[in-house]
TrEMBL record:
Domain (PDZ): residue spans on this chain: 321-387
Lineage of source species: Eukaryota, Metazoa, Chordata, Craniata, Vertebrata
SUPFAM superfamilies: PDZ domain-like, Winged helix' DNA-binding domain
InterPro entries associated with the record: DEP_dom, DEPTOR_DEP_1, DEPTOR_DEP_2, mTOR-Rac_regulators, PDZ, PDZ_sf, WH-like_DNA-bd_sf, WH_DNA-bd_sf
Pfam family, one: DEP
Protein known as: DEP domain containing MTOR-interacting protein
Domain DEP: 32-107, 148-207
GO CC list: plasma membrane
GO biological process: G protein-coupled receptor signaling pathway; intracellular signal transduction; negative regulation of TOR signaling
Molecular-function annotations in GO: GTPase activator activity; guanyl-nucleotide exchange factor activity
Transmembrane spans: none
Amino acid sequence: MDGIGNTMQKKAAELERLAEVLVTGEQLRLRLHEGKVIKDRRHHLRTYPNCFVAKELIDWLIEHKEASDRDTAIKIMQKLLDQSIVHHVCDEHREFKDLKLFYRFRKDDGTFPLDSEAKVFMRGQRIYEKLMNTENNLLQTREEEGGTFERTLVASEFIDWLLQEGEMATREETEQLGRRLLEHGIIQHVANKHHFVDGPLLYQFRMNFRRRRRLIELLHERGRSIPESHDSPFCLRKQNSDGGNTSFLSVSPTKEIKVAVGVRRSSMSSSCGSSGYYSSSPTLSSSPPVLCNPKSGTMTRTCTNYVRCVPQIMGDAVGWGFVVRGSKPCHIQAVDPGGPAAAAGMKVCQFVVSVNGLNVLSHDYRTVSNLILTGPRTIVMEVMEEV
């Protein structure tokens, strides 16, 4: 039985890696089209449509901080070439070379090998995007077996919607589609207790197709270098496995430190005003530094004066740039000084009140993490700081 379980876990890990490669490759393709890196090019009186120059792409990857150097950029693109995401326009080179050679995404010339696994992920991505881009009431906070779960789908309602959208012809076929989406890790039962069945059970999207992937993640054989895990789904810039120093502004659960303020960037928007905060207290700017020591998300001072802020944070190519911890309420554990969260005015030690209008004071950081990871790229968070 253990052997069967290990085999299933191995298969699931392989499917997850495949999904990440497909989604990451597609995100890169769309970005390159938007940046006019992919375009029709001529060579020896012949036109090659929708292609890019390898050397220029490597320059682009370094300029956009997707790779630290040319060798790393080559390894990233070689990974996409090995997975049949890109190829040389004449299929004369099986290696990605830092030369003025033309390469193309297979999706742009119709040569992408659509095996059964790839088809499921691409189908799941299309359904996910369609669901997010249309007005409906399918995704809601609901209760099941004594637990409360955000952004859930009722299986029967999901099937109704899929049929209405023309995804399948019959209810039985649609249920089978739901089962395949679950088996490939795209959706899951809220408590991981049931397969997908037509009825009142609740399910959630497990995979967030809109999360911007870092291309460097492709080089990590264990899967995502930025895990959508309970540990730190927002710590998207520092991957120091040796536990060394990072550039994050953070607060230790066992040490008292001063609140650190991130520098705002003009490209970010926030309802906090020019100072980074909307405050009902006219003496905020002259207040002394706040000391805090959040343990399990509990407040360590009895002061009842708080400053409210509602930053709007747009994730960039790397992520949102903060770490959340604790429970009931959870708090901001770390902020990347150069990230979107700091630019919007977020600080360490703040307590999270709501995410995209949903009150999360009674939830732990696992629930809040999942709520943000499965939501839109731009998040609106209400936070409070004790003064």
